[in-house]
């Protein structure tokens, strides 16, 4: 297991989602500009969730980013949905960001392919940035407490989704009912996410308050996957007032 770094992550709190999203987008944009000024290209991973919408809307409008030198990945995908299903994460990200700026390339997860295929693409060069959130059950990507492994030997794997995670997808408006939510998905593992150089974690809403509290204060373990953020040296957590357990 990674060594716990005391005092991590940095926490920034804002009165509402709009202010939170604007601040997070400004920081991600600044990081992109800085890295593109010093290296030929940038590789980054995106989460697909309504919690990320405010940040992504501001990010795609940010000036001065040479998106043609940025390669994009995403961190999870349902198994069993039709290719054109709106709830499929690749399609959600197409609408939110992938088709809104001219990336050098976008690598979408194919849920019918071997997970090792996507792992190989990720391993071709270091990942610079991850834009992620925290689930109501404390998951990172689709690493739910029942299946999360903070020392996972795999970079990408197939997992079974727990009931809390599936219900969150209904609560977020992505599916009409619990029965419609797929039971399995492909996900990047926690070690693969934490291998990135910098993480920007955007977490709005009262439904996430308990998970944020656990992420910041519970013992670092797979019982609360988001506690793993405290083992990374460069994480910033963005909260609105509803999600901030300190408010």
Q: Any idea what the radius of gyration is?
A: 17 Å
Proportion in helices: 25-40%
The CATH topology name reads Rossmann fold
User: Using DSSP, what is the number of strands?
Assistant: 10
Widest sheet: strand ordering = 1-10-9-6-2-3-5
Organism: Pseudonocardia adelaidensis
Protein name: Glucosamine-6-phosphate deaminase
Domain Glucosamine/galactosamine-6-phosphate isomerase: 15-232
Keywords: Carbohydrate metabolism
Structure description:
This protein has a single domain (10-240), classed as 3-Layer(aba) Sandwich (Rossmann fold), CATH 3.40.50.1360. Helix content is 29%, strand content 19%. It has helices at residues 17-38, 53-60, 89-98, 115-122, 163-171, 190-194, 209-217; strands at 10-14, 42-46, 70-74, 76-78, 105-107, 129-132, 156-160, 184-188, 198-203, 235-240. Strands 1-10-9-6-2-3-5 form a seven-stranded parallel sheet, sandwiched between helices. The relative contact order is 0.21. This is Glucosamine-6-phosphate deaminase. It comes from Pseudonocardia adelaidensis. Keywords: Carbohydrate metabolism. Residues 15-232 form the Glucosamine/galactosamine-6-phosphate isomerase domain.
